[in-house]
Design brief:
heterodimer, A: mainly alpha, about 0% strand, B: about 280 residues, alpha/beta, Rossmann fold, 6-stranded mixed β-sheet, 4-stranded antiparallel β-sheet, 10 strands, globular
């Protein structure tokens, strides 16, 4: 019993080490982080302005609703980019800095390593996404009196489980392909969102893409977030979208860990677990 | 144990040798130009040796002779293609987590997040070994002082430090986890003479105070002769001999270790071999 508690304490300490390291990195690169925030803001605005553009072109739409609809898509894209980005760049960055061997030879279980990275991505992603939401909402004078922000937070946290699981799957790519692995990770992010109705309703997609949308956690996350922010639906009313995300998360996390474990074995077999790949 | 030790050394059987390597072999497959067929390169031919607890063994060899491959195999960063390796009785390839708790490594490259400070790099790395913040807050300054690192530089970015200073931080990082086996992969390469001597003094102290076993890979003959109880010559992945320096000189009828190396391999130590990994 005591041995188990000690082992668990040690594992959690390792996980906190990953969060601590990423916090230091963000602090040391704070000006770059601000610059990136400005880029994300500009990118979000280009999408959200589309609603105003349609109104000006004569379309009969509820601009406030359409703006919020597009904003939620852009926020989820940004949030997913943060979680995926941290996971997929984890190996690449360590390789660049030359710390990859030290990290992979430390007595830190790979699950804690990956979960720590994912956890930091979720925490930092939430802060950035909230800041982005506030700035854009002010910019467009969005009126969201009935929004249920607690339900939106719950949805995003539940969705994050499966996002971390899928992120783990993509994070193996730079391990087995040091040259192009990161780019492939971003392709996975784009593909996930294109079938999930990021800026449109899933019903406009061709049948085969709609089938893929059913197994994408982002589909349920986007729908539930829009329902909570625009229609003010609470957690109870969103359960129909929450449980599929939980199921996908329960499958995606162990699957992601197993895929990474196999990738790590491949890298160890072929000598790719080093700074030059 | 010294007062600077933070982590109590993990339990291990003191009766068994520190390192037992038997017929250990590693091959790499490399593509040649545009050819589809892969060429098999033997980085380490079947190698057998053992190191007693508390002993310091130096392995001499040119670049590409297999020294780093040997260290990376023992560090759990590579999987073997044949043979076995045990560290304090634990199978390196089947019980990697147990082995990782017993070892640490200092390599030729400064493996740090360069924007982070020495303190930050040591702090998060110690967390991977289960050390708490309150333990490291006190131990890191002590350890840095011991390696002769000026504490006033401990909070500035690593990129502003000289190579010698970075290497001292690397030694402090390794010592912070109280390794029973210290793997040193060319730790003084590229250092100025004074830093070199300081690092060498520190290696002696580590053996004396921490009762650590040391495997030192180097191509510095003087360093090997001064620090090691036994010296091995690794040539094209083959361990040609492993004996005390005087015995080696006697065996090859040489007056110096350099002559012994030349007699054993037919080439001078400064010449490079093909990099096999």
């Amino acid at each position: 019993m005591r041995g188990t508690a000690t082992a668990l304490r040690s594992e959690l300490m390792g996980l906190s080490g990953i969060v601590e390291r990423n916090t230091y990195i963000i602090k040391r690169y704070i000006w770059w982080e601000l610059a990136w925030f400005v880029w994300t803001l500009a990118n979000t605005l280009t999408i959200v302005f589309i609603a105003k553009g349609f109104e000006q072109a004569g379309a009969k739409i509820d601009v406030n609703k359409a703006t919020t609809w597009l904003l939620i898509g852009a926020l989820v894209w940004s949030y997913l980019g943060m979680v995926f980005g941290l996971l997929v760049e984890m190996v690449q960055w360590e390789r660049w800095e030359g710390t990859i061997e030290h990290t992979f030879m430390a007595p830190l279980s790979r699950s804690m390593h990956l979960l720590g990275t994912g956890l930091f991505g979720v925490l930092y992603g939430l802060v950035r996404t909230a800041a982005l939401f506030v700035v854009v909402a002010f910019f467009f004078h969005l009126s969201l009196p009935g929004a249920d922000y607690v339900a939106a937070l719950v949805v995003l946290l539940v969705a994050s489980i499966s996002f971390i699981g899928i992120g783990m799957m993509t994070s193996v790519l730079p391990l087995i392909s040091p040259e192009k692995g990161v780019q492939l990770g971003y392709i996975a992010q784009g593909l996930l969102l294109v079938v999930s109705g990021v800026y449109y309703n899933v019903s406009v997609l061709p049948g085969w893409m709609q089938a893929l949308a059913r197994i994408s956690p982002a589909t349920y996350a986007l729908r539930a977030l829009r329902s909570s922010i625009i229609d003010g639906k609470g957690v109870h009313a969103l359960w129909g979208d929450i449980w599929p995300m939980l199921v996908i998360g329960i499958i995606a996390v162990p699957l992601g860990l197993e895929i990474f474990r196999r990738g790590e074995r491949y890298a160890k077999r072929h000598g790719k677990l080093k700074r030059s790949g | 144990m010294s007062s600077t030790s933070v982590l109590s050394q993990p339990s291990f059987d003191r009766a068994v040798p520190a390192v037992e390597v038997s017929c250990l072999r590693k091959d790499f497959r490399r593509r040649e130009g545009l050819r589809l067929r892969l060429r098999c390169v033997s980085a380490l031919k079947p190698v057998t040796f053992s190191i007693e607890r508390g002993e310091c063994v130096a392995i001499l060899g040119q670049n590409g002779s297999g020294k780093s491959t040997l260290v990376r195999l023992l560090s759990t960063l590579l999987l073997e293609d044949g043979g076995t390796a045990r560290i304090f009785g634990h199978d390196v390839f089947r019980e990697p987590r147990r082995v990782q708790r017993l070892i640490n490594r200092v390599s030729v490259e400064a493996s740090f997040f360069k924007r982070l400070s020495a303190f930050e790099n040591l702090s998060y790395a110690a967390r991977f070994y289960g050390l708490r913040r309150r333990e490291t807050n006190a131990a890191i300054p002590r350890m840095l002082e011991r390696v002769g690192f000026p504490l006033e530089r401990a909070t500035g970015p690593m990129e502003d430090l000289s190579r010698g200073m970075q290497q001292k931080v690397a030694l402090a990082r390794a010592l912070l986890t109280t390794p029973a086996l210290l793997l040193l992969d060319e730790p003084t390469t590229g250092l100025d003479p004074r830093s070199k001597l300081e690092v060498q003094d520190f290696i002696r102290e580590v053996r004396r105070v921490h009762d650590a076993t040391v495997l030192l890979c180097t191509h510095d003959l003087n360093e090997a002769e001064q620090l090691a109880d036994r010296v091995g010559i690794l040539h094209r992945g083959e361990l040609l001999c492993l004996a005390p320096p005087d015995e080696l000189k006697h065996r090859y009828q040489a007056e110096t270790l350099e002559e012994a190396f030349f007699s054993a391999t037919g080439i001078a130590l400064g010449e490079d071999e093909e990099v096999s990994e």
